[in-house]
Design a protein that fits this description.
Blueprint lengths: L1 H10 L2 H20 L11 H25 L12 H13 L9 E3 L2 E3 L15 H4 L1 H13 L4 H22 L5 E5 L22 E5 L14 H8 L1
Antiparallel strand pairs: 1-2, 3-4
Helix pairs in contact: 1-3, 2-3, 3-4, 7-8
């Protein structure tokens, strides 16, 4: 009983919230410079120790709240708050990443628990539970999503309308390039031509087999046209 009341008093202090916010900010800064996933062989051991230290701090925070609020039972239980549920998931999902040197064989191949390190990017979201103003804004944003469905449908309709117009008017137009009259090679600057754009001297406007941005930007079919308009 005394432990429960003691933990409850601790988690309700302003100092506890301030320390939690500082830990989250420092952890976010450390993650910016952590290249463990990019180049594991040349990673400083500092990041592994820092990861363990932050995980311990998050675990202590989680345990204090569970003891203070109660885990499941009770009107103010820890897991009955969606934001606490997010915190709990972030903490629990961090533990398998400690075993990133092991591999567990599965039916479809190998699975490395270290791949769960990607869930670390959710840690800055813990700040939502600490900053009341940010929490109110996020709650209002989520509440407004159902009201935006009609607006999104109208926007998608206009995207589709302009995509169809683009397919009708500009199919193949973005494949036009400037070719050398003598050699037939593309201009070194990959100049688009057609319409109001003319090729420089010694070049003529012809059609190639490629569209801009590695073929993504074009109006040759409806899906790509919709993506281009978007």
């Amino acid at each position: 009983m005394f432990v429960h009341l003691g933990c409850f008093d601790i988690v309700y202090t302003k100092l506890f919230d301030n320390i939690s916010i500082v830990v989250i900010l420092v952890n976010s800064i450390v993650m910016i410079f952590d290249t463990t996933n990019v180049d594991p062989e040349n990673t400083s051991p500092f990041f592994a120790k820092a990861e363990l230290a932050f995980l311990i701090l998050y675990t202590i925070e989680c345990v204090l709240k569970i003891v203070g609020y109660g885990f499941i039972l009770g009107s103010n239980a820890y897991l009955k708050d969606p934001w606490n549920l997010l915190d709990f998931f972030i903490v629990v999902s961090s533990y398998p990443s400690l075993f990133n040197t092991q591999e567990v064989q599965g039916n479809d191949g190998s699975f490395s628990p270290g791949s769960l390190r990607v869930f670390r990017v959710l840690r800055p979201l813990k700040s939502i539970t600490k900053i009341k103003g940010l929490r109110v804004l996020m709650t209002a944003l989520f509440a407004a999503i159902p009201l935006l469905i009609d607006t999104m449908m109208i926007l998608a309709f206009f995207f589709m309308l302009f995509s169809i117009a683009g397919v009708q008017l500009m199919t193949g137009e973005l494949k036009k390039r400037c070719f050398s009259i003598q050699t037939g090679k593309l201009h070194e600057d990959d100049i688009l031509c057609g319409g109001l754009t003319e090729c420089p001297g010694g070049f003529f406007c012809g059609k190639s087999n490629m569209n801009p941005n590695y073929g993504v930007t074009n109006f040759d079919n409806l899906p790509y046209a919709f993506l281009t308009v978007f």
